[in-house]
Amino acid sequence: MWIEVVFWSIPLLIYMWILGMWANAKDNQPEEEKEEMTFIRALGTTLLCVLVGVVGIGGGSWYTTDKLFNPLIKEVEE
What we know:
Mean pLDDT: 83
Strand content: under 5%
Number of helices: 2
Helix content: over 70%
Order of helices and strands: HH
Largest sheet: none
Structural class: mainly alpha
Radius of gyration: 19 Å
Low-confidence stretches: none
């Protein structure tokens, strides 16, 4: 089951790696060439961070509940 989580997180990891490489390239540009941070860019970055956080917390909570607590609950019910 955990292999599915790893498999489905690969596209997100690739996207985040490419985004980091792009940000590093932008950071190394001279000051004259840098673009200003606009409201849309700030909003997009915020939404991306929130999405990654929600997926991480949700996935971790689901995995913990499914793998750790369900066997304990089943033992108590018996």
